[in-house]
Amino acid sequence: MKVWRDSNETTGCPFFGVHIYSDSSVVIRQLKCWKGYSGDHQKLLFGFYDHGHQDYPGWALRNYIAFLSLRWKIEKVQFLCYRERRGEPDLEKSLIGEASFAAPHGWDGSDYVPEIIGWEGEKAGDRKKEKILKPIDLDSLNPASQDEEKQVMHLKLMGWRHPSLVLNKLRSARCLVLGAGALGCEVSRLLMTWGVRKLTVVDGGCVAIPDIVKQSLYVDNDCGVPRATAIVPHLKERCPAVEVEGIQMEIPVPGNPVSKTKMSSVLDNCKRLQALVASSDVVFLLTDTWESRWFPTLLCANENKIAITAASGYDSYLVMRHGAGPGHNLSTEDALGHQRLGCCFCNDSTSFVNLVLNETVALPGLTSIASGKAVELFARILHHEEGDTCSRRYCWYGH
Ligand SMILES: [Zn+2]
């Protein structure tokens, strides 16, 4: 058997004949030769490589016996289920047995179609039955897509209760997350939980030691690494199917003096941010200052993108969606004749002051609450038939 397995010519033949002679010598031959040697051996076993490890033969034996019956009219077969363990013959697990098989009537007729596994359907035509090969979704065998199936199972279960849930909308939504701090970490993670698979995260800072306890995705090793770089592998670890891009970039802020030498790089950042907003479906404004939300707010209004602001102060937080952009006529009414909603700068300036003063020191639980509400708000707007122009009644998830 070892010679058979080691030879280039025969190692790839999973079916073979084992000829046992009266002097106990054994010769293994190719199956097609069995008739030529049928007279001079004492015993003939039809062998095959059996990948099973159970106490009974593997499935391949069924096809093997059917083939022997159909091709050579052998009704009684002595078989050898040859098994290996770590590349070595495992004769303890290998099985020898005998099977009788009476071919059904008409089995060898040219128009006979047996009931076999892997084929389905029956097409009538010219008194002939036709079976169609059952298509196998090979992608379902891919470990990555199996993982993805498991990761959206909770959403599918939700979909049974709430049929309006459209997973494809969430999967294809391109989300731009501005800021990868405490809010950015939570929002990115929750978006993935909602089935979002296209994320772009923009941040200009680096992970510092005090951040690790507050910003949920980072670990000790990330200290000193740009947040936009550090967040990517952590999101991928949790959800391998997510397409995430981390962009290290300072968001241009009005009023910040720009030296002549930095002028061109700031302008480049402006153009880059404009392109990012234009290519996204929703923008989350989660930076650590109000000023840095101003320019993205203008871009979102100009591009008519869903924009959601989340911020936490010492003991307060704010989550709001910006209204749809003004369009071409700069009207205060939106495309559906509703009063347009404003942005976070023209709606609630008093709470801004509070938040600006207290932004870096907030009650720990508020970050999770604000992030959670921001993401639920996004999912709510995405599923509303009027999208970003839906009225303010739909500002909050659950209302
Ligand atoms: Zn505004």
Which descriptors apply to this entry?
single chain, 399 residues, alpha/beta, Cytidine Deaminase, domain 2, Rossmann fold, 2 domains, 6-stranded mixed sheet, 5-stranded mixed sheet, elongated, binds zinc ion, ThiF_NAD_FAD-bd, Atg7_N_2
**What is the C-level CATH assignment of the largest domain?**
Alpha Beta
Low-confidence stretches are: none
Spatial sequence of strands, sheet with the most strands: 12-11-10-13-14-15
- C-alpha Rg, in Å? 34 Å
Largest sheet: 6 strands, mixed
The H/E string reads HEEEHEEEEEEHHHEHEHEHEHEEHHH
Strand content: 15-25%
Q: Oligomer, anyone? A: single chain
Molecular shape: elongated
Helix/strand class: alpha/beta
The small-molecule ligands in this entry are: zinc ion
* Overall residue-averaged pLDDT value: 83
Head-to-tail CA distance between termini: 74 Å
The count of β-strands is 15
* Tally of separate helices: 12
CATH topology of the largest domain: Rossmann fold
Question: How many structural domains are formed by the residues?
Answer: 2
What is the CATH H-level superfamily of the largest domain? NAD(P)-binding Rossmann-like Domain
Organism: Aegilops tauschii subsp. strangulata
Domain Ubiquitin-like modifier-activating enzyme Atg7 N-terminal: 3-126
InterPro entries: Atg7_N, Atg7_N_2, ThiF/MoeB/HesA, ThiF_NAD_FAD-bd, Ubiquitin-activating_enz
Domain THIF-type NAD/FAD binding fold: 167-389
Task: Explain what the structure shows.
The protein has 399 residues and is α/β, with parallel strands linked by helices. It has 2 domains: 1-100, Cytidine Deaminase, domain 2, CATH 3.40.140; 152-398, Rossmann fold (3-Layer(aba) Sandwich), CATH 3.40.50. It contains 12 helices and 15 strands. The chain has helices at 2-6, 60-72, 143-151, 153-161, 167-172, 182-193, 227-238, 263-278, 291-303, 344-347, 349-358, 364-383; strands at residues 15-20, 26-30, 43-49, 76-82, 84-85, 88-89, 95-100, 119-120, 132-133, 174-178, 198-203, 243-248, 282-285, 306-312, 317-321. The strands form 4 sheets. It has a 6-stranded mixed beta sheet, with helices on both faces. Strands 2-1-3-4-7 form a 5-stranded mixed beta sheet, covered by helices on one side. Helix 2 (60-72) links the parallel strand 3 and strand 4 (76-82). Helix 6 crosses helix 12 and helix 8 (263-278) packs across helix 9. It is elongated and about 100 Å long. Bound molecules: zinc ion (ZN).
